[in-house]
Design brief:
mainly alpha; about 75% helix; about 0% strand; elongated; transmembrane helix; transmembrane; PrsW; membrane; peptidase activity
Length: about 400
């Protein structure tokens, strides 16, 4: 499938957003959620944990140790002795499905669908646009490009709108029939960028050079496929939402309906739920293995419990999720073919050229046009297209 230069640029920007933006946002969110989850799950053991932390820091101060961060923080947390109560297992599941799965998969979705403020008339909507959970749908934000070209005073708006540039990928005016596949690629690109930065960070904080190489290799064959598969699942489900509106599968049809539907929190959670489930299961089985395998078992059979068993369990999750993704891709391809046939039928009946179907867009098209004007033109084009489709199939 040939991609336009604009689409290639959007995919590159999405990848760079996954590299530089998503890890920072994920770190902030997880740094807030993990302590809150620990406080709720270990509230009954707070006294014992407080005493252990006090003793740990007193011993470290006596040895003039460095501040607890990076691997040292993880070592400190692993040394905590907590009772394996119900709260302990809830904490592990919360880490897997909420702190890791939900946060990271939602950010991958947000990188493509999200919007933020890009003009003086939207100064008070940053949080609303970031969350995109209001009843009123958030509008795509990258009209700042055109504003900067036409009005130099909007130069500062470019920075605020750049992060949300891929949202134009979803709400492109009159997209071609392969548009759904481009949306799928955009989510995968963001997931791949996030995985690259995450793997790099984990490798750099490893204590020795051998550990750095081992960590990089291990995460490249496990974490990278996981993020790409989960991103692909989200991308497919997101593309299906757009195809349903283009085919008239929902209550409304077209760009405005898709924008409104994807602006609802319920729709967002529905789209990312399978990816969150896969991500959570992948992490949960590793956490469960860490709980069940004792130090004595690992010392007696280090290869079996340290390499073989985790690899087998991880491969099972990856293979099953890849099979699911492949089936969803096949179903999306069938929907794309149906949409392509409808557009061809409309163009043949109306006598128009097939450029909009094959991706031959006019360079003079208002790609970064006004959103309000775009919605009006969308509704007119969609009503006209609906009448044409009916006339074709009523012949």
């Amino acid at each position: 499938m040939p991609l336009l230069d604009r689409e290639l640029e959007q995919l590159l920007r999405t990848f760079l957003g996954g590299v530089f933006v998503l890890p920072v946002l994920a770190l902030l969110a997880q740094s807030l959620l993990a302590p809150l989850l620990a406080f709720l799950c270990f509230y009954d053991q707070r006294g014992a944990i407080k005493e252990q932390l006090k003793d740990y820091f007193e011993d470290e101060q006596g040895s003039r140790a460095a501040p607890a961060h990076g691997p040292k923080l993880g070592q400190m947390l692993m040394q905590l002795q907590v009772d394996k109560t119900l709260g302990y297992y809830v904490f592990m599941l919360g880490l897997a499905f909420v702190v890791a799965g939900l946060v990271e998969e939602f950010l991958k979705f947000w990188m493509v669908q999200g919007a933020c403020c890009c003009g003086p008339s939207r100064r008070g909507c940053c949080c609303k646009s970031l969350l995109c959970c209001s009843k009123n749908p958030s509008a795509p934000a990258f009209t700042a490009i055109k504003r900067r070209q036409e009005h130099p005073q909007y130069h500062g708006a470019l920075l605020r709108g750049w992060l949300c540039h891929p949202s134009r990928l979803l709400f492109f005016h009159r997209p071609h029939a392969n548009h759904a596949f481009v949306v799928f690629l955009a989510v995968v690109a963001g997931a791949l960028g996030f995985s690259v930065m995450e793997n790099t960070a984990y490798s750099l904080i490893a204590p020795t050079f051998t550990d750095k190489i081992y960590t990089a290799a291990l995460r490249s064959i496990s974490s990278t496929p996981l993020h790409c598969i989960c991103g692909g699942i989200t991308g497919v489900r997101l593309a299906e939402q757009l195809l349903e509106h283009r085919q008239g599968g929902g209550e409304e049809r077209g760009t405005s309906a898709a924008r409104s539907d994807l602006g609802r929190l319920r729709t967002k959670l529905t789209v990312i739920f399978p990816a969150v489930l896969v991500h959570g299961i992948f992490d949960a089985q590793l956490f469960l293995l860490m709980i069940l395998v004792t130090d004595e078992m690992e010392e007696a059979h280090p290869t079996r419990y340290g390499v073989v068993l985790p690899t087998i369990l991880s491969l099972i999750v990856l293979v099953l999720s890849f099979v699911y993704l492949r089936r969803k891709l096949h179903a999306m391809e069938n929907k794309m073919n149906e949409t392509r046939y409808i557009h061809v039928a409309v163009d043949l009946e109306s006598g128009e050229r097939l450029g909009a179907v094959n991706g031959d867009f006019d360079d003079a098209m208002d790609f970064f046009g006004n959103d309000e004007e775009e919605e009006d033109s969308d509704s007119n084009d969609e009503s006209l297209g609906t009448r044409k489709v009916r006339s074709v199939f009523d012949m």
